[in-house]
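Quick one:
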Amino acid sequence: MGFQINTNIGALKAYNALASLNSKSEKAQLRLATQKRINSVADDTSGFNVGKSLEQKVKLMQAAQGNVGSAKDMLATAESQLISIKDMLTQIKSKLADASNPAADKSSIANDIKSIGLEIDSAIATTKFNNTDLLMSGTSGTGTGFVFQTGASSTDTLTVDYGQYLGGSDDTSTYGGSATNVHSSVKAGLDFILNATSSNLSSIDFDLFETAVDNALGAIGNSVQRLDAKDDFLTSAIANSQASVSRLFDADMATEQLNATKSSIGGQAATAMLAQLNMAPQAVLQLLG
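Output:
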C-alpha cells in the first residue's frame, strides 16, 4: 500500500465501482417500475428500432383487420338485400304461374306483380352502407367496385366486385322505378315487371335480372371467403408480431429483481469499502507524529 495523500487510488477505484453498481441498480429499478426492458434508445439501439418498426406494422395490420371487418359487414348488408330480392323474384314467378289459370284474376295478379316490382326497385335504390349505394352505381358505388386495404402494405388490397353484375349507366324509371345507374339486365327485368298488365303477363321475362342477382351473390360469397382467410392471417400475424415486440421491450421482472437486489447489496459493500479506503491515507499521520 502506498502512502500518497494527494491521490487516493484505492478510493477512486472503489468510487468507480460504487458508481457502476448504482447505475446498474438504477437501471434495474427503472425496468421494474416501467415493466420495460428498453426505456431509451441507448438501452438497445437495434432492438429499439426493430421493435418500433414491428409496433408500426402491428398498428397497420390492426387497421387492415378493421377494414376486413367493415368489408364483411358491407357484404352482409348487400347479401341480405339480394337474397330478399331473389325471394321476391321467386314470388313473382309463382304469381305468373297462377296467371296461367284461365279462371285467375289477371288484373289483380298484374297489380301484385307491379307492387312487388316497386319493392324490388326500392330495395335497389335504398340499400346503402355508410351512405354508399350497394346495389346501383354511384360516385363510389357498385359500378366502380370497392377496394379495401387488407394488409400492412398499401398495395395489399382486395377489390370487391360483385357490383359488376348490378351497376351500370341505365335508368330504370321507364315504368315508374326510382333506381338509377343499374346494369342493363337489371333495367330490362324491372321494366318487364313494372309494366305488368293483365294482357302481357305471359311475356314477362326477367331471367337475365335473376341471373345477375345470382352472379352477384356468388361473387359476394367468394369475396367473403377471401376476407375470412385474410382475417385469419392478420389475427395470427398480429399475435406473432406483438410477441416479438414483447420480447424486445418487456422486462423480465424476475431477472430485473435479482439484478436490483444484487446491485443494491454490491452498492452497500462498495460504500463501506469506499469509506475505509478514503480513511487509509490517515496512516501517514503516524509518520508525522
